[in-house]
Amino acid sequence: MFLNKRLVKYINFAQKYNNLAKQKVDIDFIINQSIKLFRIKTYHNTSMSDIAEACGLLKGSLYHYFKSKEELMGKVIIAVHEYFKTEVFTFAFKEELNGVDRLQLLFEAAQIVFVNKKTGKMYGNMGVESAMVISDFTPLLQSFFNDFFLALKHIYQTKFEESIAEELAERSVAEIEGSIMLSRIYDNPQYIFNTFERLIDRIR
């Protein structure tokens, strides 16, 4: 009886192993699953085992796609940047709209990333958190923030001269990042919403 139980347990394990080994996933799927985990647990509290499990992979199989968590995080930052360029920052350059409408649409698109409206959960700025201790991420984040600055500057130039628009853009990004930090500390996304409203009032 004891041997039969051990045999059944072994067969179940072997089947699970074979299913995982045969499962095919692509890099985009792994990146998307990683983004979800990093948002919930943060980069530092997420292990490669966590990511592998979320992807339905064995941990060893995950290393066929990414040699380290640092490499994976770099790809995550790039993917998030690309998303913002196509889905968020793009509203800044809708020349048929006025500055207020552009900023409103940009912020509404950004909220989808920063806050889960169904649960009210704050997603946070996982990239900035990671860059503070891993310098390799800094150039990737600088590229992201450069595009963020340019998008806001372009909007502010609908009302202000270039030098003032540039200053307001830098100040606005700093205020947004600060509101994200406060929202995480107090577990309250209202700090982000309040900041967005203040920035929109600035250009009315």
Task: Write up this protein.
- The chain has 204 residues and is mainly alpha-helical.
- 72% of the residues lie in helices and 2% in strands.
- It has 2 domains: 1-67, Homeodomain-like (Arc Repressor Mutant, subunit A); 76-204, Tetracycline Repressor, domain 2 (Orthogonal Bundle).
- It has helices at 2-22, 27-41, 48-55, 59-62, 69-87, 99-114, 126-131, 138-156, 162-186, 190-203, and strands at 115-116, 121-122.
- Strands 1-2 form a two-stranded antiparallel sheet.
- Residues 17-22 have low confidence and may be disordered.
Q: CATH architecture of the largest domain, please?
A: Orthogonal Bundle
Helix content: over 70%
Low-confidence stretches: 17-22
Shape by Cα distribution: elongated
CATH level-3 fold name of the largest domain: Tetracycline Repressor, domain 2
Write out the strand line-up for the largest beta sheet, numbering strands in chain order: 1-2
Number of domains: 2
Q: Can you identify the CATH class of the largest domain?
A: Mainly Alpha
**CATH homologous superfamily name of the largest domain?**
Tetracycline Repressor, domain 2
Describe the biggest sheet?
2 strands, antiparallel
Q: Which class best fits the helix and strand makeup?
A: mainly alpha
Number of helices: 10
Query: What percentage of the residues does DSSP assign to strands (E)?
Result: under 5%
Radius of gyration: 21 Å
